[in-house]
Amino acid sequence: MIITNVDTVPGKKISEILGIVRGNVVGTKPVSESFFSGLKEAMLSAVSLAPRIITGEEVGLVPSEELRHTGKEDEKQSPAATPNELEDYSCLLTRLRDTALSRMVENGQERGADAVVQVRFDVSVISPRVLEVCAYGTAVKLG
Fold this sequence. Notes:
Blueprint: E1 2-3, E2 14-28, H1 33-55, H2 64-67, H3 83-110, E3 115-127, E4 130-142
Parallel strand pairs: 1-3
Antiparallel strand pairs: 2-4, 3-4
């Protein structure tokens, strides 16, 4: 089957339009180390607040310097800024696009298409870790 993002197949004549075909998939980004890092900081903050709560002291935000009394001097980074996070999203999107494209091709084969023209992809963010990818195009018969 020929898959193209243009509206014709060079050297071929479209003899019949079979309609729109599509394939979609929803996927989630795996929980990464940055998630666990954030969880660890939240737990350390809660532990450092416990004595203040028990003694009735004012409870406010715990400065990040207090969180560092664990003996670890690792740099605090935004989860979205870490290279592994971006790599995780790139791998996820590649996998989802491939799956959506395969499903679109399968849908075209079920209709008896020789090609799918005008192929496009849509990506929707359902939540910060959940994405939907849809591949769609026009199934055609070639003459």
